[in-house]
Amino acid sequence: MPTHEAGALHAGIPAPAWLEVPADVNALFQPLWPRTAFKKDDAVLQVGGITVTDLAAQVGTPAYVVDETDFRARATEFKESFATAFADLAGARVHYASKALITVGIARWLVEDGLAVDVSSAGELEIVTRAGMPPDRITVHGSNKRDAYLERALATGVGRIVVDSLQEIDQVERIAAATSTVAPVQLRCSIGIEAHTHEFIATSHEDQKFGLSLADGQAMEGARRAAAAPHIEFLGIHSHIGSQIFDVEAFAQAIRRLVKFTALLDASLGGPLTELGLGGGFGVAYTTGHDPMPIPEIAQGMADLVARECQREKIGVPHVSVEPGRAIAGPAGITIYTVGVVKEVTIPGGGKRLYVSVDGGMSDNIRTALYGADYSATLASRRSAAPPRLARVVGVHCEAGDIVVEDEYLPADIAAGDILAVPVTGAYCHSMGSNYNQVPRPPIVAVRDGLANVLVRRETQADLLARDLYA
Ligand code: LLP
Asked: Could you tell me the pTM of the whole model?
């Protein structure tokens, strides 16, 4: 078996260009881990004041672990950065995107910390209202909203409904009229920006389902309809250009186009629009290859640009909202797994790849299979003196694409019973979880100051069978 100059075992397989051989395979690359996470002298990972070995003993594996301190610090940093940057303009509000990860417990943190939220389904709306989120801090999204969802949103008194089609404008008007209410509405626009991200998570180029296009005149038609509807208060336009975006120029382009269109609407509708929704999409580091910009810098950059573009277009500055999901929840969460089968597989060309199986997989993290997302992992339950070896972390599912971490250097002596931790799984892992192969979903455990607080318990076989009417 060939040995790398740095001591790593490659076994004849190439590593991706961004993946460096770790100088110490036991060390954490701190930017990927929650703020309270560190490895103790025995190299056991601790987060929120609890070791993962204690957590595994308490709640089992696999488990999603959320560092409450980290989540709330990120949420607060967003809120304060945008409040500060937009203080001399018309203000800005941060709506946490619930789709990333929401439970009643997490929604309570957001209520307490003064965040607003966006929801994209009746189910998410139910969770945040149960947590006591003030209705005016809720924005309602969805590309195909059912009547019952809109009725519930209006009855709740939500702050805004972002309409996504011409049809929906008529639907909102009909429902608001029937209940003698006035619906506060923003219009979701697609603005033709190709953000450099995975195709499935890029949302504002033209050939996808979201929004009304500026290019073909539908956004203008939608704005006219919304402004003329007696039971709609038309507040402004909204756009979300995609997710996991590092390209500052994409956000800048979006602001230029949206401010320009707002100016056009102000002139043609005969009154100023008071709001501008800029969506979410702020990228986070999943691996050593990513380097996101600090939030205060992003907020200040956006504020400067909004001010400058509004001045250029000679319009008043609207109140701005942003909707970060991943950038708040993602880095606050980790997943802990127990290692089972470890297998060396001879690959075409003769190299040998180490497959490390864990007790979860694509049902608790679909992002690797769905988007080709990169993750990393660390041995979290002991110190190893073995050299780093390139490995692939896979799950329990009956599917060759059941990959959790495509490539990572793990200690060459990784073995059954070890605990493996994967960072940056707070966003879009639990929320996109499934029961593939009738596998129950893991619990979500919040940790803080040495205490483990189960937010969502582990699913059981009984839960799954409860819906099978022949069981
Ligand atoms: N606002 C709107 C209108 C959105 O559609 C989304 C994400 C967000 C905000 C939050 O975006 P974030 O800041 O979290 O990137 N499931 C995918 C991402 C698709 C998200 C769709 N909408 C993933 O796992 O990467």
From this structure: 0.96
Burial pattern 431-452, b for ≥16 Cβ within 10 A else e, equals bbbeebeebebbbbbbbbeeeb
The CATH number assigned to the domain with range 7-67+332-465 reads 2.40.37.10
* Contacts for 323 with CB less than 8 Å, ≥ 6 apart: 94, 95, 96, 97, 118, 139, 240, 277, 278, 279, 280
Whether 429 is catalytic is no
The answer to whether 448 and 67 have CB atoms below 8 angstroms apart is yes
Residue-wise pLDDT tens digits, 149-181 = 999 999 999 999 999 999 999 999 999 999 999
> What are the DSSP E strand ranges found in 87-144?
92-97, 116-119, 138-140
CA-based nearest residue to 273, from 222, 327, 198: 222
Whole-number Å distance between alpha carbons of 385 and 46: 20
243, 302, 321, best to mutate for ligand 1 pocket (most atoms within 8 Å of CB): 243
Q: Which residues pair with 239 in a beta bridge?
A: none
User: Does ligand 1 lie within 6 Å of residue 236's CB atom?
Assistant: no
Helix axes 166-178, 218-228, angle to 10 degrees: 10
pLDDT tens digits, one per residue of 234-259: 999 999 999 999 988 999 999 999 99
Domain boundaries, the chain: 7-67+332-465, 86-329
- Ligand 1 geometric centre to CA of 321 (Å): 15
CA distances to 61, 270, 342, 401, 471 from 395, rounded to whole Å, are: 13, 58, 11, 9, 27
* 430 CB near ligand 1 (under 6 Å): no
Q: Domain 86-329: what homologous superfamily? A: Alanine racemase (3.20.20.10)
Q: Which of 298, 296, 251 is nearest to 278 (CA)?
A: 251
The two domains 7-67+332-465 and 86-329 share their CATH topology (first three levels equal): no
